[in-house]
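User: Could you check the structure of this?
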Amino acid sequence: MDLGGKLQFIRKQKGITIEDLAAKSGISKSSIDRIEKNGQSPTIQKLLKLTECLEIRIEDLISENELEIELMELLWQAKKLTKQEVRKVVDMLQVFDQEKQKLKNKP
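Assistant: Sure, the predicted structure tokens are below.
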């Protein structure tokens, strides 16, 4: 995912409109839209303002590591889960890990 796509994904996951982000950051709506569509490369000052307003690290936008991006997406989704749903996910992961260990120990 490119920088613009990451910016748009994070903004939407946080429930923030372009208008809200523009008002909070002081960056025009059209400029944010162009950045999200990769039609404009943001200056470092704009990146700092955007990351501050979104309450993320600049590394979250510029990371090239796809695994980090996938994990970030999963974490955003996990924040929407109820406590009961989180417990079920944890239980499933534990079962998965146990099965993986069994397969590892098989001759």
